Amino acid sequence: MFMCGHFMPSRLDRGAQFEYINKVASEYLVAKQPVISLVLNGKEYGVDSKKRRMVYSEAGESVEALECAFPTAELEQAKFLGVVDILKKAGFFGVGICGVTAEFAVASIRKWWYEQGCERYADTRGIYITVDSSGSDEVGIKLWRVRLQELSNELGLEVRVSHFPVGIYKWNKLESRLFSFIRKTWQGKPFISLVAMVDLVGGSTFEGDLTVRCAVDQMVYRSVVGVSDEVLARVNLRKEVFLGDWNYSILPHL
Predict the structure, then answer these.
(1) Max alpha carbon distance in the chain (Å)?
(2) What string of DSSP letters covers 165-223?
(3) Which residues pair with 160 in a beta bridge?
(4) Whole domain around residue 84: which residue ranges?
(5) What residues does 94 pair with on adjacent strands?
(6) In b/e form, how buried is each residue of 93-132, taking b as 16+ CB within 10 angstroms?
(7) In whole angstroms, how far apart are CA 224 and each of 108, 133, 137, 143, 174?
(8) pLDDT tens digits along 205-218
(9) Which of 33, 89, 156, 237 reaches 20 to 30 Å from 77, CA-CA?
(10) pLDDT value at residue 49
(11) pLDDT at position 29 over 80
């Protein structure tokens, strides 16, 4: 896993971080600028593969369910990873069998931008990303920042990042709302393939103006990628005055 490193703030700092995220996100939303929440492990919202699920159906229409939700070991490793667009109340997810890595995460942001973000926010000068702080893997942290730098250069945009305090991974209410409806669609249905998982998400019915798009991600993202000090030094990182390990921007190289 990757994220913001070995910085361990006090409980007071944890509370202040939530207030800071809310302040910054509100400023972006009022200005109609993109605020996205990165979902790092959507499987947490899914089905327990070791428990049989029960659903009710009309007489004569029952469907025999598998003992396990995931019939193969490969499918049991499947994970949802993607983006929740806060302003547009929309989810954009990929389903893959790779681990949750910095490369997978940044690739998800890139796909969201080219599929949806670039049209919705054609005049923006930056993206605000909120993401978990769920690890202290130094290699992953370096790669996360290097891949964000590549994305910033490619898009010509400032990438501003804020991390939620460690252990707080379901704070985003919109994200929880989306998956609450997805869980209803999944109930009692076995995951026989990645395509079937995507179809179940696509077949979910949402209340109000919530929308979601989901696709299979066939890419194989490496779990370990070395980052030299020379490459890391080229990251155009700007730490903010307030809790700079948790709040920073990466600017494009002009």
Answers:
(1) 67
(2) PTT-----HHHHHHHHHHHHHHTT----SHHHHHHHHHT---STT-EEEEEE------S
(3) 128, 249
(4) 11-250
(5) 81, 215
(6) bbbbbbebbbbbbbbbbbbbbeebbeeebeebebbbbbbb
(7) 18, 19, 11, 9, 32
(8) 566 677 778 777 77
(9) 89
(10) 45
(11) yes
- Assess whether pLDDT exceeds 90 at residue 252: yes
- How far apart (Å, rounded) are the C-alpha atoms in residues 25 and 175? 15
Which tops the pLDDT comparison, 22 or 63?
22
What pTM value is reported for the model?
Answer: 0.80
Number of domains in the chain: 1
Angstrom distance (rounded) from CA 43 to CA 28: 29
pLDDT(238) > 60 = yes
Residue 2 lies in a domain: no
170 part of a folded domain: yes
Residue 3 lies in a domain: no
Find the distance separating the first CA and the last CA of the chain, reported in whole Å. 30
DSSP code, position 65: P
Q: Exposed/middle/buried for 230, CB within 10 Å: 0-12, 13-18, 19+?
A: exposed
